[in-house]
Design brief:
Helix content is 21%, strand content 30%. The chain has two domains: 247 residues, Zn peptidases (Aminopeptidase); 74 residues, RNA polymerase II/Efflux pump adaptor protein, barrel-sandwich hybrid domain (OB fold (Dihydrolipoamide Acetyltransferase, E2P), Beta Barrel). The strands form two sheets. It has a 15-stranded mixed sheet that branches. A four-stranded antiparallel sheet has the order 16-15-13-18, with no helix packed on it. With 332 residues, it is an alpha+beta fold. Helix 1 packs across helix 6.
Amino acid sequence: MQSRTRIWTEVDYERDGKQVDWLHLPHSVTRSAYGTIAIPVAVVKNGEGPTALFTAGNHGDEYEGQVAICNLIRELRAETIRGRVIMIPALNLPAALAGTRVSPIDGGNLNRSFPGSPDGTVTQQIAHYVDSVLFPMADLFHDFHSGGGSLAYLPFASTHEGPDKEVNARGMAALRNFAAPVSLHWRQGADPRYSPGAAMKRGVAALGGEFGGGGSLNRAGLAFAEEGLIRHLRFLGILPGGAPEPRPTRMMEVPDQACFVYAPDAGVFEPATEIGDGVRKGDLCGRVHFVDDPARPPVSVFFKRDGIVVCQRHPARCERGDCVAHLALDVD
């Protein structure tokens, strides 16, 4: 039998109305013996109906989703909906407050920590609460990401390919309804350590996406996220007005590991392409320079397949093994 979460809250998920409160994760430290980490949560409910679960701040240095969900929390009113919306804008709160990808408390990467543990580290306990308490309530889950401080992305919404065809189909329908200018299908599989993969194991249609990057806030990505949240609520019937009008989206996929390019050595990476460029197998991706050994020629790195550059490393300084770019392919 699975242990129960140690996180507690005064939120009543079954109560009609609008509640904005906290998830309290017990955290005993020198300055606060009986302290908690207070993770903000909002629940808006009116009667019976579907449940949408929206999260951001899974990685603390990814901002479009954090702002979009904060805006929705302030604007959404219980009397305008039918069903329930659960919103957490800073899921990994310690990382969000520090502006870091991983938790400054335990070094945990929340999006590699599912299904988590009720007796584990801070990050593992957050993952366990989402997996064991929130996913079983949800009909649709969307976790908003971006490239953070290390990557710049062409903004897109995404879904993963999991083992359950029916769950995959519901996720793809939600992705097409979200209708970002670019929609991406991760064909490599739904890793259960990631939040969408964990949700899909629970039978929940799950979306992700990269809405910006570089540690900044992409205005276009924020606009896609905000509009897409409303489209989700109309698609589920939580907001009135019927399903949104269909809208074209550029469907792309990442089919395999050959789409990714990695730095062969430590140095300064000079990209040879721009995000959005089309490339062919064997084209130059970029060169790694060695400013501490200027007589040494730079090392070139090449693309391993045809595709569209949707991601590039943001900081020029790199270490061996850093992802410097990845591709996606258009889907007919």
